[in-house]
Structure formats: structure tokens, C-alpha cells
Amino acid sequence: MNGLIQFVRFAQGSAAIVLRGSRQYWTWVGLLLLVIATGVAAYTNQLTHGLIVSNMRDPMSWGFYIGNFAFFVGVAAAAVILVVPAYVYQWGPIREVVLLGEIMAISAIIMCMLFVAVDVGRPDRLWHLFPGVGLPNFPSSILVWDILVLNAYFAVNFFVVTYIVFKSYMGQPYKPEFVYPIVFLSIPLAIGIHTVTAFLFMGLKSRPFWNTAILAPRFISSAFCSGPALMIIIFRVLRAVSPIPISNAALRKIGELLGYAMAANLFFLGCEVFEQFYAPTRHTIHAEFQWFGLQEHGIAVYTWFALVCNSAAFLIFGISRLRDRINVLTVGCVLAVAGVFIEKGLGLLLPGLTPDMLGEVYRYAPSLNEVLVAAGVWSIGALFFTLMARVAMAITLGEFRYQQK
Amino acid sequence: MSDDDRRRLSPEGASRRKFLRTVVAGAAGAAGVGAAVSGEGVDWEALLQKNFREMSREELDAVLRRLEKKYSKRYGKDVKVSATGPLEGVVYGYGLDVSRCIGCRKCVYACVDENNQSRDPQIQWIRVLEFERERVERGFVMEDGNPYYDHEQVPAPGKVYLPVSCQHCEDSPCTAVCPTGATWTEPDGIVVIDYDWCIGCRYCMAACPYGARKFNWGDPSVPDADINPNMHLLGNRPRSRGVVEKCSFCIQRVRDGQYPACLEACPVGARKFGNLLDPNSEIRYLLENKRTFVLRAELDTRPKFFYFWGTA
């Protein structure tokens, strides 16, 4: 009972904290709310007229939404790159930031769910997916598997973060025997969400571009690029706007890990390119579309741009003299996020579905309405992160503690 | 086989599900999502409707009557919606003579008329590809085909035509990936969709190796006068926005012993249809005596739609 009262007070205190902030804080939150409102308006337009307001059509039946979904699953999975050194090796500098990494994972999962939800034609029927009320096609449909692992991963991270934050609010150490089993569970789950999301595409024998065994390893290697890179960017922002202690040592360590991840990512890409172009078959037409555009070069420019971003990021992460300069490291992170966002977003979707099964080349680019809806989803994710991080940081900084009345 | 013998899914969980479903769907309805999506106000019965395979005979009848009333009012004619079940000892197979097909697209438009396909935005379940005769000698590679050919007269010299629609695969990738069990294979081999259960995720469209599945990106529209009032629940009855549709072998016709509309429309007799289990059927004759082939044989989806070179 006592614990419940304490938790209620914690929740009330958290609400008070997120409603209190500098002008900078409110400008940021206001901006996010504005973009969310625009996104809601765009989504209402989509509900009113149907997905015809997108540029998706039968030959390109998945687009920007599903591309974003694949990208943010990667961002979510990458929390594990902090969890391992923090909890397993008890490495101090990372331990300070692991909570923020897990909060980022939670926010990313929220975005993933929303990107699937806005993509379906009949959101009023989403309950058909739920066990008990609906008729989930388990174990046959990988989409059902994906929903299961994403929810489990969300639950695990949400629980760990809430528990640890609440304990530090109470000024008590957390119980390792309680936290560790759950944290260890999050490691295979992080790999799991990414593997299953890759299987979603890999499992389609109709799509030779995706039907490759290297897709899951590629998903994981690129996730370990985009997630930690995004973290470093966010940490630098947080350091600039608050007195939160995030050491350069932690950032450099993450930067070093990024070097290995990007090396693996580029190597896997090279393997794919070799297989496609050294021994070309009629299936190579998808890779030809990706790299050379089949007459029109729009997508090819996009593909090569991603390669340049990723290669430059690799040089920065791999050369310690560059990586150790925090500003240069941050540039590398921006390049890596941009490169992976292309590679795993539309860079995966477009050549996978084009030309379509009857050979038609439909050149897709998202409509304004799709971009506005997506921006709304990004802002919802960013708002969740902001609010959760604000509470966690207030506790870390000792501004928010349980007081006996 | 009667409707009651239809293969059903776990009826034991039905009452528990019914309760939970009321709660969840009620919440969704209260949120007005259904209203916004259908654009017709909240239709509670439609919102709470079960998957076709879980309905009892009575529930199914209630759905059929409700839809008949709704469609009759909407289109101003006497609409009949049936759910005629599969016939005993029948598995349908289709044959298409590539050497006869002249690419006139009469099948495409007969299909549109028969199956109430949206005129605007345009949805067509059959797509006819035009190939160079000499390229085809090395097999049909879809990227070589042109669906947008537009000649004064067909067949154009030196061309071959390949109409493609749902291949009704034995091992259908689309039904395997559907997350809600909204599409499945009937005992007579027809791959069907429950349009009231489909959530519109389009995973089946990514999985289909034949581009057979079409999505209702906008509100489908068919002029009242053109509506075919002889409907089947799993076939040609009107679809809503946001769901997937495709060829059903004209389920409303073939289960009544008629040929599919595309076959009857074909002016050159290139289309054949029959019972694969009947050794005396025309389709069996073709399989045994002609050089038949299936599309994308290497994927092992085992289509029940066979192409053959009848004369050349």
C-alpha cells in the first residue's frame, strides 16, 4: 500500500516536472505539438478519402510508412548496444546514459506501431489482429510475430526504465536480481525484433530483392549504425540544454562501436552487390533499378547518396583522430543516420517492389500528405522521448526526489 | 458439401471471443473511427461481424439478409447475396491457350462487369501483357511484357498475349502471410477474401508473385445501372475502401454450374475451365494432351491456372 502511495506521488511529481520548463523547453514542445496537429489533420484527410491521398498504388503497395517502420525498428533495437556494456560489464560512463537509450527505444517502438497503424486501409478493424478478440494468423503470418515481439520489447524496456527511475526517485538502489533477468531478456528481444522485421520481407519468395538470407544480418548491422548514431546526436543536444553529465568517454566508446557496425554494414552491402552484378539473372533488374534507375536516375542518385554518407561516416568512426573530436564524430553520426534512413527506408522498399510482379516500373515518391503524417509520427515519438527523458534527467540531477511528508 | 460443412476455425473459442469482441469493437466504434472510415455512420452489426469461417449458419444468414437489404436500397434493384458453399468432389482448374489469345481484352471488361469492379478509380482483376513472339520462345519474363499496348487491331503481328489474374495457387503465399486470416483457400481450390475482415495491410499484395491482388485506394464506384445484382459474399459483392480484392474464378457463377464470365466473353475460345478431379473434364484433357505450363513455376506455388500452346 505504502509503495502504491509512493508511486502515485511519483506519477504526480513526474506530471508536474514535464509541465515546468524553460522557454527553450516550451518552444520545443510547442513545435512538436504543432507538427503533431498537422499530422493529425493529414491523417484525418487520409481517413476521409482513403490511402488514395498517398502516392502508393497497386504496383508499389508499400511506401514511406513501411520504410519508416523498418528504420525505427532498427533504432529501437540499438538500445541493446548500451544495455550490454552498462549492465553486463558495468562500464561507468555508459551506465550513466543507458536509461536515455532505453527511453529512445521505447519512443522508437511507439513510432513503429504508429507507422503500421497509419498504413492500414481499415484501422477500425485493427482489433482483428489481437488474440482473444480477433483471429491472428499465428504462427503462419510473420506480421503477427512482429507485433508480438515489438510489444514484448516495449513492455520490457518500459518496465525497466520505470522501475529504475522510480527506485532512484525513492533514493534506493535497484535490486539487481530483479532487474538483470529482465535486462538480459531484452537482449535477445532486441535482436529478435530486428530479425523478425527482416523476415517480414525475406519471407516473400515473390520478391527476389528481399528474398536473400543476408537481409536479417544487414538489418542488424544497419540498426547498430543508425540507433547509436541517433543517440549521440540526442545526447549532444541534451548536454547543450541541460547540465546532465554525459561524458565524452561514453560518446567516444559509442563512436568506436559505430565503426565496427558500419564496417559490417558496408561489407554486407558489398556481398549483395557482388552477388547481384557478378552473376546477374533476370532478378538483377531490381538492383539495376536501385543503382542505375532503369532510364530515369532519381532513385539511383538517392542510392549513391546513401553510399557516400555511409562510407564517409565509416571513415570518421574508423579513424580515431577524427572520432575523438566530438564535433567530427557528430557529423559522422548525422551522415550515418541519413545513410541508413535511405538504405533501410525507401532504399529497401523501392527496389524490392519495383518493377512489380508483372514487370511494371511505377516510380514512387511519397505524397505531401504521407510526409505530413510521417512527420506527425516522428513528432509523437520525439514528444514521448522529451517527456520521459525530462523526468529521468530531473531524477539523475537530483531535482526530483521522494520526500517524506 | 453444404455451407454448414465449411471448414471452420476453432468454434470452441467463439463465445469468449464474442464477448471480448463486443468490448473492443465497441471502443473502436465509440471513438468514431468506423464512422470516419466507412463514411456512412457507425454500422454496429458490420463492425462486430465475425470472420466468415467463424460464423454459424444463422449468423451467416443474418449477414446475407442485411447486405441484400443494404445493397438493394443503395442500387435501387433487387440484389441477391449468396454464400453458396463448395461442391463435393470439385477442385477448379483454368486453362488458357496462349496460341489462340488475340489480346482483345474482352475478358477484362466482362470480368469488370460481372464482378462489380470499380470503374473510378479503375480496378481490373485481369491484366493482359503483350510480348514479342521471339522473346517468348525463351519463356515469359514479365519485364518483357507491355500491359499498355494500344493498337488499331489485335493481334498485332509478331506479338503474343498473356492474360494474368489470380492463379489460385495450391500453396498460396498470400494466404500464408495474411495477419488476420481474412483470405484462405476453399475446399474447391478457390482462394477467397472476406472483405469484412481484411484490415488492408497489403502484406498479401507484397507476397503475391502474380500481381493479382488489387487494393481499394479510394472509394470504389460502380454506376447503379451497371451493378450485377447476382452476388456472392466471397466474390463479386461491392467492396469498401481500404480492402484488397482479386479474381475468385467467378465464385457466384461456378458454384452454380456456370462458366466464369471471362471464358464466356472470349471470342476465340482461348479460355477453358473445369473440374480437375473429373478425369473426363476438358481441363484434364488439356493437362494430359497439351504442352501446359504455369507462371513462375520455380516458386512452387502450384497454380491451378494453366497456360498452354494449343496450336502453335
Can you count the beta strands of chain B?
A: 12
In total, how many domains does the architecture of chain B comprise? 1
Secondary structure category of chain A: mainly alpha
Poorly predicted spans of chain B: 1-13, 34-38
- Sheet-strand content of chain A, in percent, reads under 5%
In helices, the fraction of residues of chain B equals 25-40%
Largest sheet of chain B: 4 strands, mixed
Order of helices and strands of chain B: HHHHEEHEHEHEEHEEEHHEHEE
CA(first)-CA(last) distance of chain B: 40 Å
Average pLDDT for all residues of chain A? 93
Going by CATH, the homologous superfamily of chain A would be Formate dehydrogenase/DMSO reductase domain
CATH class of chain B: Alpha Beta
Layout of strands and helices, then pairs:
The complex is a heterodimer of chains A (405) and B (312).
Chain A: H1 2-18, H2 23-49, H3 64-77, H4 80-88, H5 92-95, H6 98-119, H7 142-170, H8 176-202, H9 215-241, H10 248-278, H11 285-292, H12 298-318, H13 320-323, H14 326-344, H15 346-353, H16 368-396
Chain B: H1 14-30, H2 33-38, H3 44-47, H4 57-75, E1 80-82, E2 92-97, H5 106-114, E3 127-132, H6 133-136, E4 159-164, H7 173-177, E5 183-185, E6 191-193, H8 203-207, E7 214-215, E8 230-232, E9 244-245, H9 251-254, H10 261-265, E10 271-275, H11 282-289, E11 291-293, E12 305-309
Parallel strand pairs in B: 1-8, 2-12
Antiparallel strand pairs in B: 2-10, 3-4, 5-6, 7-9, 11-12
